[in-house]
Specification:
This protein starts with 15 loop residues before the first helix and ends in a 6-residue tail after the last helix. Strands 2-1-3-4 form a four-stranded antiparallel sheet, covered by helices on one side. It is α+β, with helices and mostly antiparallel strands and 106 residues long. The protein has helices at 16-27, 86-100, and strands at 39-44, 50-53, 67-74, 80-82. The chain is globular, with a radius of gyration of 16 Å. The chain is built from two helices and four strands. Helix content is 25%, strand content 20%. The relative contact order is 0.23.
């Protein structure tokens, strides 16, 4: 889909709240290279510092070493989508494609 093309915005205009959340997530510690299209899992250390892991709570057999917060997919525009909202974000992108005349019935 068009939304997965490099540089195509996932959302037309991010709210200030969403922009702030994206900035906060980019500040979370991460010991690997973040790549668009991948899902990362956010945890919080006892001191309150957030960090991303490639391991989900299930990978830890439901007992991660720190508090699990949520899982996010890094988008091509470097914004973050909570895993729970991925289906809705993709549907919105497909609607936008149709409105702009991209894709569809060829």
């Amino acid at each position: 889909p068009l939304s997965s093309r490099r540089g195509f915005p996932r959302r037309v205009a991010a709210s200030p709240e969403q922009t702030r959340q994206d900035q906060d997530l980019h500040r979370a510690r991460c010991n690997f290279r973040r790549r668009p299209g991948h899902v990362y899992h956010l945890y919080r250390k006892p001191d309150g510092s957030p960090y991303f892991s490639m391991l989900s709570p299930e990978d830890w057999d439901g007992d991660p070493p720190d508090e699990y917060r949520d899982s996010y997919r890094l988008e091509a525009d470097m914004s973050w989508t909570p895993v729970s909202e991925i289906g809705r974000a993709e549907a919105n992108a497909e609607d936008l494609q149709r409105m702009l005349g991209f894709g569809g019935d060829d």
